[in-house]
Description:
single chain; about 220 residues; alpha+beta; 7-stranded antiparallel β-sheet; two-stranded antiparallel ribbon; about 20% strand; globular
Amino acid sequence: MRDLQPNGRVLAVLAATASLAVMAGAGSSAHADTGSPDAAEIPCAKYLQKKHTYRTDPAGPSWQTYTTDKLGRPARAEIRVGAVDRNPGLGLCEAVVGEWGGPGHVGARMIPAGVKGAGHRANVVPVAKSADRILKAVERKTLRCDAGYKIVTLGVTAHYKKNDNGVVPSRFSVYLEAKNRAIEFGANSFLAFDNKEYTKAGETRLLDSLADQVGAMRC
Length: 219
């Protein structure tokens, strides 16, 4: 059985963020709610502030919004594409979060880095490798829409099993809007996808459905 104890790099990141975790849990939210949240203010911790929203430039034309659930787990990430630059120094949080999922999981951004999704914990969850490939396909389709319209909103919701206090989402749903054309892969629709390993055929069916839906948006 794989040893799930954190490695040296993970321990270093956790140590560096321990005091920040206390701060986030204590309810200090003025900076996160009113302006661009500094990455250092969002610790790489299993549970963040409960039912909290981290925003960037909420009144401006470009923004990112990251919301946690009642346990402090990442629940909803939404971005106007092109909102802020990616901070490459945040990649260590992905390694930490990947460890929490156990074998077969990686730490992945719900809003991917390619469309400038942030690398802090409010956007990073343990994801099965198949599901990560689907999220990356969403990223490619979003970039395609952005190239044609320049006004694109992408939202990803993480769903957790009822009465499960763990940090691994059970499934994801996606919302994509380009100007006035929108598609939503809701929690109960055929394009909602589970956070699991798919067969090659199953993964292909999901990717083909995604391509068809985005193609119908003509972007």
